Amino acid sequence: MRIEKLDESTKKNLLADLLKRSPDNYGQYEAGVREILNEVKEKGDKAVFSYTEKFDKAKIDASNILVTEEEVKEAYGQVENSLLAIIRKSLKNIESYHAKQMQYSWFDSKPDGTILGQKVTALRRVGVYVPGGKAVYPSSVLMNIVPAKVAGVREIIMTTPPGADGKVNPVTLVAAKEAGATVVYKVGGAQAIAVLAYGTESIPKVDKITGPGNIYVALAKKAVYGHVSIDSIAGPSEILVLADETANPRYVAADLLSQAEHDELASAILVTTSQELAQKVSLETDEFIKTLSRGEIIQKSLDNYGHILLADSLEAAIDTANEIASEHLEIVTKDPFTVMTKIRNAGAIFIGEYSSEPLGDYFAGPNHILPTNGTAKFFSPLSVDDFLKKSSIISYSREALEVVHLDIEKFAQAEQLTAHANSIKVRFDK
């Protein structure tokens, strides 16, 4: 990995470089995505079946688009008991963590007859998108479905692309059943987002769509936002390790590569105050790449978006971490908890040398669907909140309104909204 001196010019160029990976910069695909969305909206199932055969080489129709109980049972027979046990352990951790996020309705009653409050209601029906193809992501199945279940969503519709044989990966199916998906449909890509947003003869429209996907899925979610709600528009994966001379270079190198293996657009950055650590981490990454199965992808990722930044001070390193606002941030310093208090922008923060990023991906409990491309400055991880909506409750007695009615009328008149003022006034006309 290349080692660079951290200064304002380096930081500016790095931030500009990272932003090139944003889905906003893939406009050449938007027309194709829009065509798919419009076709599904107009032709429903017919378009879905056609695109599934075109992109996934699978013959799907109304008779087999829904995953059956028999298929789920078959999937359980294909998953090792040891892996099933691990999925259940992870599921328990994720449920426990998200249960603490739950919000409830509240009401505040006063002696004058004023009642104010907030009514919290779960969304009725949500759609969860799970990528397919060559990769298998049972962890993403859990991370999407569990917070929806905790929130109290009644219908959780999962879509995922089938293989050419028309079947869904058995591990994905088992994870969906364990997490509590209501139904699973065999459809992927931008056409799956269209189905969830508009509904077809076979699949009902949802209120919100969550889940990661490729650039076509990301652009489709962006296009349907407003017609339905979405969680976020995910960009390529990224990790930033903030470290000083106390860090273990082998651990740091391994953690950087854990994200670089996702794809060629993944970003892996080390910001450190130690030149010795920087040099050792660079050497360790070279050695690891020789033995890892996705070494070619990792190398391209590091060539494109891998950086080791050498900072003059820990404060400068922290400022840079806050500017980058990474999806995953590891803090491996002498006093990591103090450093953590100075971090404002990060999707997930991992503290200490035994809290490596994959711990969050698979097992610890916090959600691994996180803001990317600097959006951690204003977005949060997927949570129970994403599956709840809130309604304000307002109730005044005549006595309570009488005390303030002139204030409200004057406020309305200041905005020249006389009908607003009159709505209050008529209640006290003699």
TrEMBL record:
The active site is at E327 (proton acceptor), H328 (proton acceptor). Its EC number is 1.1.1.23. Pathway: Amino-acid biosynthesis; L-histidine biosynthesis; L-histidine from 5-phospho-alpha-D-ribose 1-diphosphate: step 9/9. GO terms for molecular function: histidinol dehydrogenase activity; NAD binding; zinc ion binding. GO terms for cellular component: cytosol. It holds the Pfam family Histidinol_dh. Substrate binds at S237, Q259, H262, H328, D361, E415, H420. It comes from the Bacteria. It catalyses: L-histidinol + 2 NAD(+) + H2O = L-histidine + 2 NADH + 3 H(+). Keywords: Amino-acid biosynthesis, Histidine biosynthesis, Metal-binding, NAD, Oxidoreductase, Zinc. The keyword DNA damage does not apply. InterPro entries: Ald_DH/histidinol_DH, Histidinol_DH_CS, Histidinol_DH_monofunct, Hstdl_DH. Zn(2+) binds at Q259, H262, D361, H420. NAD(+) binds at Y129, Q191, N214. Binds 1 zinc ion per subunit. One of its GO terms (biological process) is L-histidine biosynthetic process. Its cofactor is Zn(2+). Catalyzes the sequential NAD-dependent oxidations of L-histidinol to L-histidinaldehyde and then to L-histidine. PANTHER family: HISTIDINE BIOSYNTHESIS TRIFUNCTIONAL PROTEIN, HISTIDINOL DEHYDROGENASE HDH. Belongs to the histidinol dehydrogenase family. This is Histidinol dehydrogenase.
